[in-house]
Design a protein that fits this description.
Elements lengths: L3 H6 L1 H9 L7 H37 L5 H33 L19 E6 L12 H8 L2 E2 H7 L6 E2 L2 H19 L4 E3 L4 E2 L1 H7 L18 E2 L4 H5 L6 E3 L5 E10 L18 E11 L4 H18 L4 E5 L11 E9 L4 E10 L3 H6 L2 E4 L2 E4 L1 E9 H11 L7 E2 L5 H4 L3 E2 L7
Parallel strand pairs: 4-8, 7-13
Antiparallel strand pairs: 1-10, 2-3, 5-6, 8-9, 9-15, 10-11, 11-12, 12-15, 13-14, 16-17
């Protein structure tokens, strides 16, 4: 949500900045709605004042023994008119707030300007993609050959875009979760939380998924419950409607959750394997910061996510997303893209964003600095997406004999050094 006073005072320049995000703000419609809303509120308040004055005058006349039936009838009419105006003002207020809730955040001045992902800017790379003396396989073939990834049975149980992990494939997923949480809590300074996986509409509104992106979510019929699309939503909303002492900031939290997304609009993209699933697991990093510290904290959060990739010795690059490629609520986003030999390309494995005060205004999260209270800044990023990390390990560490070497940092979690084919019971 935008600061309303700033928004009204800078409509033309804001419209230009939003255009860089591929969003067209209808200035005439916005101004008209705002004017009608304020006019209804003003008329209602004026009529209430007149009614109060008339009521006081009636009281004086009654004490003097004057017949006030005509004046009372007039006051009743004013009351009916006031009720009509209050209802109209409330309707316009709802329409106004709904319009504001659908307007994306403004991009930070350092964000590359461009219409889409082609304008994203590479910040740096780490590691060198492996050079194989054989033709590397994609993870969907490796997983099947090793007997650790089963798409066929997942489709039978649920449908397309779901997966079953078997044996050490399942253990690798769990090892990655524990490794990520252990690293972030023991070495990066995060506090682990385990939030509910079902969330209400108010939480999704607070982080910006509702009302605009309802089609991307799974809703439970008959309940105000949604399946969490990412731990960003429940963890950020832990502080909804609260004011935090600025001296206690930054607050750094991490959480593991399964994530559920309908993937609306992604038809035909990443249809093979587990790159794009309806259900996947992720470790999320969330920060609450003072406004003057949020961009320093964005660099730290992104570096924490990068550290996981470095410890796993997976080649990656950091990309600064352009104005046309950023998420709805973000003011600035870095994507970390890991090298996948099966695709012969880099693929996003973490998205680290500073939302500035955008989410905090929607969720009513404030910080108190001295005598001043203001919306704090929220940040989050994947630390990391576990399924895509699983893919990256299987593809980058594959061997000519079809086995997969386990990265050294994960061996204590798995009590194994290599993944070899397992016998299926079929």
């Amino acid at each position: 949500m935008h600061d309303l006073a700033f928004f009204r005072a800078n409509l033309d320049s804001i419209a230009q900045r939003l255009a860089a995000r591929n969003y067209t703000l209808d200035l005439d419609a916005f101004r008209s709605l705002d004017a009608r809303r304020r006019a209804a509120l003003s008329e209602a308040e004026s009529l209430k004042a007149q009614r109060n004055a008339a009521s006081q005058e009636i009281g004086k006349l009654k004490k003097q023994g004057v017949d006030t039936e005509a004046q009372q009838a007039q006051v009743r009419e004013m009351g009916e008119r006031t009720a009509e105006l209050d209802k109209r003002a409330a309707e316009l207020e709802t329409e106004y707030l709904d319009l504001l809730a659908r307007i994306p955040n403004l991009a930070h001045e350092s964000v590359p300007v461009g219409a889409d992902a082609t304008a994203n800017a590479e910040v740096h790379r780490w590691g060198t993609p492996p050079a194989f003396d054989f033709t590397p396989k994609p993870h969907w073939d490796l997983g099947q050959d090793l007997g650790i990834l089963d798409m066929e049975r997942a489709a039978k149980i649920t449908g397309a875009r779901f997966a079953v992990y078997w044996d050490i494939g399942a253990k690798l997923e769990r090892a990655l979760m524990n490794f990520m949480l252990d690293t972030h809590t023991r070495e990066h300074g995060y506090t682990e939380v385990l939030p509910p996986f079902l969330i209400n509409s108010a939480s999704l509104y607070g982080t910006g998924q509702l009302p605009k992106f309802a089609e991307d979510l799974f809703h439970l019929e008959g309940y105000d419950f949604w399946l969490a699309p990412t731990a960003e939503v429940p963890v950020t909303n832990l502080l909804r409607d609260e004011t935090i002492d600025g001296e206690k900031l930054p607050i750094s939290l991490c959480a593991y959750t399964p994530c559920f997304r309908s993937e609306a609009g992604s038809y035909g993209r990443d249809v093979r394997g587990i790159i794009r699933q309806h259900q996947f697991q992720k470790v999320e990093l969330v920060k609450f910061t003072r406004p003057d510290q949020s961009y320093d904290q964005l660099e730290r959060l992104t570096a924490d996510a990068e550290d996981i990739l470095q410890r796993l010795k997976l080649p990656f690059r950091r990309m600064a997303l352009s104005t046309g490629d950023m998420g709805f609520s973000s003011a600035k986003t870095y994507d970390l893209e890991v090298w996948l030999p099966g695709l012969n390309d880099y693929k996003e494995i973490s998205s680290c964003s500073n939302f500035e005060a955008f989410q905090a205004r929607r969720a009513k999260i404030r910080c108190r600095i001295g005598k001043k209270s203001e919306p704090l800044h929220t940040l989050n990023g994947s630390g990391l997406a576990i399924g895509r990390t699983w893919v990256a390990i299987v593809e980058n560490y594959q061997q000519a004999d079809g086995s997969v070497v386990i990265p050294e940092v994960l061996r204590p979690y798995l009590n194994a050094e290599r993944i070899t084919p397992r016998a299926d019971f079929r």
